[in-house]
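Notebook entry, structure prediction.
Reason for the run: the old model in the group folder had no record of what sequence produced it. Starting over properly, with the input documented here first.
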Amino acid sequence: MLFLAFTALPCALASGAPQGDAPATGRLAAPGTQTQAVMAVDSRPAEAGRIPEGTSQEAADLWDRLLASIAVPQGPDAANPSGPRGFELVFDGRIRSEETGTNDYTAKFAYLELGPGLVRATMLDAKGKEKSKQMRGLGPGDGLEYWFKKLTGSTATDWIELVGRDGRDSRNETDRWANISYDIARLTDPKSFRIVELRLRAVKDGSDRIGMGILDFENDPGLLLPDTDITGKVGGRERKVADLARTLVWLELATPDFKDLGEKKRDSEGPTVRRLVFGMDPETFRPQLVIVAPHRSDMPLQVPGTLLVQCTEWFQTGPEGKPKAWIPGRFFSYETDRTAPETEAATGLRLRFTNTASADLYLKDTSDMNAQLRREDFLPPKE
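New structure, fully documented this time:
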């Protein structure tokens, strides 16, 4: 999902320097698209748009409402629904990590869902001027090529191909951006998800632990939410994450069509099924919180690696003359961590979501979710 991998955003682009500039050798073969058959709970292949037999009518109806609430036009224009999906996102971001501290930046992502997915990340200055670019494209033999260029300052460079051992970190970083973009494409067009399982998730009746920041689902030990205010930047109001959670209706989707930020799987390994638990506004049915967890029905939702994502303040965006698309104005991503001993003693929970978001993201209304992009846009221009 967009919010998953933004927790690992850019060292190279933020600093304006690639992590390695080895000679142009050793290009990588493009990985497969991981479209192998995955079986749904009714023992039939999971397919986009097919709700497995045995799914409750209430869950199916809620899914239909979610689809209708954020429907996105497909293809490079409304008249070509079968074309590859492309989009351009413009956003302000703040990324926190132990390795690099806190980084603030403005960036533009372009993505074309062609082959394994093509991505171009551009860093912008405060006036919107381009500072650097890094991208992943398909070369003449359909092998992946990775490129970097710094556009401003005394250390400006021509295009540098990121190859060999020295360019590995920057290639991995660009692969994470491609995974981000893949997840954006799924979440802003959820009808593209293959459905392994779909079920309602009920919050326990009469639970008084929400005041402690604990979200109690039926048949789950509970999730300890961030003790954080979510002050809106686009007209939202200040309230606790737990206060938001108590107002939502919850639906769990199991799907193979969601990538972890560092996922680099071989085709032989097959897709990984994950659980996405959508907390939806009961009036608009747009997701406000999403829990991303491993797909194991015998495990609690909150395990190491589980994420909580706040995706609020949805608005419509798109250039003049194009169909408008719904996108969330705000993404916050919270990681799972150990609780303090005193918190564990009080709640009985060993894990919690961090109080500080690892990624804050504010999407801008100049984003275009139906961009007309070509394969050639993801490689350096020919001389």
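Summary: Confidence is low (pLDDT under 50) at residues 1-17, 19-34, 75-82, 232-236.
The old model has been moved to the deprecated folder.
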